[in-house]
Amino acid sequence: MGIVLALPARADVTVAAKQVSLPGLRLQDMSAVISEDPAGGLHLHLQASQADVAAMGWRHVGLRLDGRLQRDAQLRWTFDGRVQLRGAPGGALGNAQMTWTVSPDANTMQVELRQDRAMASAWLPLDQPSHAEIKLRQLPVGWLQGVLGKLWSGRLIAGRVDADLALDAESADVQSSGQFTLDGLGFDKSDGTAAGQGVSGKGRFGFDSGGDASRVTLQGSLTGGELSLGALHAKLPEHPVQVDVNASSRQGALSLDRLRVDDADALQLDGALAFDAKGNLQKLQLDHFHASFPLAGQRYGQVWQAALGLRDARLAGRVNGRLDLRSDGLHAFAFDTDGLDLADGDGHFAVSGLRGSLDWAAQGNRPVTTLAWQGMQYYRIPVEAGQSHWQSRDGSLSLSQPAALPVLQGQVRLTDLEFHPEAAKGQRLAASLTVAGVDMASLTRALNWPVIPGTLSGTIPSVHWADDSLELGGGLSAGVFGGTVGISRLSLQQPFGEAPVLVASFKLDQLDLSAVTGVFDIGNITGKLHGFVDDLHLVDWSPTGFKASLLADGGGRISQRAVNNLAAIGGGGVASGLQGAMLKLFKTFSYKRIGLDGTLQDGICQLGGLSTGEEGFTIVEGSGLPHLQVLGHQAKLDWPTLQRRLREATSGHAAAPH
Fold first, then answer.
1. What angle do CA 148, 152, 154 make, to 5 degrees?
2. Section 114-135 average pLDDT
């Protein structure tokens, strides 16, 4: 190895070597000076440009030793001095006190290191230096980055550790076991698949690493801080959470073959978990879980709730269950509850007093289960207490018998329903239903619309949920205003999203205009109204598109206020054939026809009427004397302007015609 000795007149000994290799230690460009120490013994000053320590996973670390070397009466060699490393993980041993004792008779070597609050000591047999018994006290976890780097590609950021452990390091193979105490652990991975901060705990561990694979076991408790592992995120409480983990890693993929968690007042589970090298979930198998809400959601469920569209959901109650989720989708789930309340944060959906169970599997058949509730609400539409019966057959979860949902003094009866939970895309749900006697006044009041009396009934022979869109075949009929409104071509996109999109077409037949204008308060009009509203699009229950035509062609009477409001809506006025003075003499007028068309697209509404001429489009065509004709002059309006005019017309503040 090319050692050069120099013996100058003062009897100092200088040793230099390009490379020195010892079991578990390799030094590059090493030089040492040994001289007499005034206090007795020898003074050693050693430095190496690069030092590799296999047991710690340290490579290319600068090394400097300076201290007293002496031999005692038991023929033990002892070094007492300082060690300085440059470039070690976490700044390890940047300036530490070192005591190093070699006992040939006992065949042992002992090393103790102290720096600030940190202490590390190791006991090694001389004939097997790859084995060590190690004690760590208040050691910064960053110092262990090299060791853990053999098992895991993450980065240790903060925290301290106490540990008593055994370590065996042979080349690239490392085995260790022992007990530990953590304080304020922080770590992360550059790909974002794992992170933690402020975690404390204690327990026993073991790891075994060789080649491209490693295995870790952990039994203990964790307290406080936050942990993230893939799609799992935990905010740990201040009391201990018991954990039992058996994990293995190979080429970046991580598998938790045993995962047991016991958080006494929130969550208990027993299962397995696996991720591929990119952090994608490969398996989440919970053989059993028990969750107590709201604590379980607050501590462990926020990421999952957000993924399900329930970011700010409020949950209360207890749930037991099991889950089998794999990379290719959901394979099985079951749950039972003796009382659960759920409400999403946006007020779109709520259920109270949920009791019973569901049991589904992608293959085979499962027993019939019952699920009951005290109350439900979809947006502002309440559903009274009821129950349903379910059975899983070859991947479909179906009603085993029809279910009745009491809604607004009427009933929605689900005659058939078949749900495919594993269908991430494509058709997920098929159903048929009937609606009977739903009170329109209650429904419109719940939707914050003008109150419309009447009832809603009908049959929907087919309901299909595919790609987050509900398509409803068949139609409904509302008996309102002495006539009927037929509803067809219904669909609902993102039914539980922040902005659901409703698409439907309406056919109006023989509506009593006196009743209609009484509700919408635009002034009295008599006669019968018919027409249609095709392709109505409501986004979060507000119109964004439609094509409409309203016609009253059987004649009737119209009040002066209604004339003013219709004229203001169309941006027009009364035709010049009727003088303003004459208008003031009459409170009502005879009309032959009233007609108004509108098409809303891209925020612009195109208006029309009975006919179009040079002066505008005709909205009201009078009959008899005085002869009345109401014109609209603005055929194209932006939707907010038209909405404002409609609000003014129905509130009695419409501008006077001109």
1. 95
2. 87
Are 261 and 269 spatial neighbours (Cβ–Cβ below 8 Å)?
yes
DSSP 654: P
pLDDT tens digits along 106-121? 888 888 999 999 999 9
Q: At 14, which amino acid appears?
A: T
Residues 415-441: what's their mean pLDDT? 84
What are the CB-based long-range contacts (under 8 Å, 24+) for 612-620?
615/575, 616/570, 616/572, 617/570, 619/566, 619/567, 619/570, 619/572, 619/594, 619/595, 620/558, 620/563, 620/566, 620/591, 620/593, 620/594
**CA-based torsion, 445, 447, 452, 457: positive or negative:** negative
Domain coordinates of the chain in residue numbers?
A: 434-651
CB 394 within 8 A of CB 364: yes
Residues in CB range of 175: below 8 A, 6 or more apart:
167, 168, 206, 207, 208, 209
Gyration radius of the chain's alpha carbons: 40
d(CA 78, CA 6): 24
Q: Judge if the upstream peptide bond of residue 626 is cis by omega within 30 degrees of 0.
A: yes
User: Which amino acid type is present at position 205?
Assistant: F
For the chain, the distance separating the N- and C-terminal CA atoms, rounded to the nearest angstrom, is 109
Q: Could you report the per-residue pLDDT of 480-527, keeping only the tens digit for each?
A: 898 999 988 888 887 766 778 889 999 999 999 999 888 888 889 999
pLDDT tens for each residue of 210-246 = 777 788 899 999 999 998 876 678 999 999 999 999 9
Q: Which residue has the tokens 């003031």?
A: 584
Cα(235)–Cα(227) distance, integer angstroms: 7
